[in-house]
Amino acid sequence: MAFLNLYRNKLRDNFEFLRGKFREHEVAWGVVSKMLCGNRSYIKELIDMGADEIHDSRISNLAKVKETNPNVQTVYIKPPSKRNLSDMVKYADVSLNSELNTIRWISEEAVRQNKKHKIIIMVETGDLREGVMGDHLIDFYSKIFELPNLEIIGLGTNLNCLNGVMPSADKLIQLSLYKQIIELKFNKKIPWVSAGTSVTIPLMLHKQLPKGVNHFRVGETLYFGVDLFEEKTIEGMHGNVFELFAEIIEMQEKPLLPMGNLSSNPQGEVASIDESLYGKSSFRAILDIGLLDVDPKYLIAEEGEFEILGASSDMLILNLGENPKKYKVGDLIKFNLKYMGALAVLNSSYIEKRVV
């Protein structure tokens, strides 16, 4: 059985690194746990190392956070659906919102549950995912700030999540100005300008973060130590908090080219033929993971060790060349993971999850 290791000390090092940087810049932050897919042992690791605010896009995952420690502030980080509002208000202390009717329904549900629910209004800043258009923000706020059992605690934005628009000082200054305008017009305090996600961290590290920005929602940089501007590991952080291990279940020398009439495979792909490879062979390994678990393009192997040839639903095929490392059936192959690869593996019930 393939398995995924989470290395506790590396995760803790990354957490402490980020906590120190946010304290230095007087910025509050919460940990985004959605990549962990509700894994209880991994959520417990976050809480044990000091995460007191956890964000997720699945209500069932926030329920597990509350079951682990009810004192952790939970944040639902996508616009809620009407049919999930009862559970959302029950398990999320805060939610990110951009729809007027939804916020009214949240208010009604919070009254029913006799709870105070906190709202961050998401503002569109160019990436064209969720968010209220800036021209409509004053009118939007005027219709929700007095709704019962609600507290508007912030303005937020998401960048680089859909169209790849990167954060900039100008965009974040605009968000801070919206906050100031609302506070002056309505004589209300909005505590947070939630500037975004891991992609915004390099602005802070390079002292380019506007002064008004004071809240972050961080996942990818915590788990992968990555600077998303330069796509490299931040000095002082670990890029290999997670490692995937898969077992070799077949190892044989085989031709490099398929034999017979070719048609599309179950993924709709047709093999291309390089005629220069006729008559040549290599050692091929089959591993006990497949497309049900992860797309091979999100797997990272040691450079030059092997080539990933393809995958079926439950098997991954490698070209080991002459097999210089003398791999054999039963041996383990190690992969690092890109973010979307880790998300898929953690969502797979067929991969064992371990804490090391």
Whole-number radius of gyration?
Answer: 24 Å
- SSE succession: EHEHEHEHEHEHEHEHEHEEEEEEEEHE
Q: Please tally the β strands and state the result.
A: 18
Percent of residues in β-strands: 25-35%
Name of the CATH superfamily of the largest domain: Alanine racemase
- Characterize the biggest β-sheet: 8 strands, mixed
List the total number of helices. 10
- List the uncertain runs: none
Q: What share of residues is helical?
A: 25-40%
Give the integer mean of the pLDDT values. 95
CATH class of the largest domain: Alpha Beta
**Architecture (CATH level 2) name of the largest domain:** Alpha-Beta Barrel
CATH fold-level topology of the largest domain = TIM Barrel
Class inferred from helices and paired strands: alpha/beta
Task: Explain this structure.
The protein is of the alpha/beta class. It has ten helices and 18 strands. The protein folds into two domains: 3-233, Alanine racemase (TIM Barrel, Alpha-Beta Barrel); 242-355, Elongation Factor Tu (Ef-tu), domain 3. It has helices at residues 8-24, 40-48, 59-68, 85-91, 100-113, 137-142, 169-186, 201-205, 220-224, 339-347; strands at residues 3-6, 28-32, 53-56, 73-76, 94-97, 117-122, 150-156, 192-196, 215-218, 226-227, 232-233, 242-255, 281-287, 299-300, 307-311, 316-319, 332-337, 352-355. The model has no long low-confidence stretch (mean pLDDT 95).
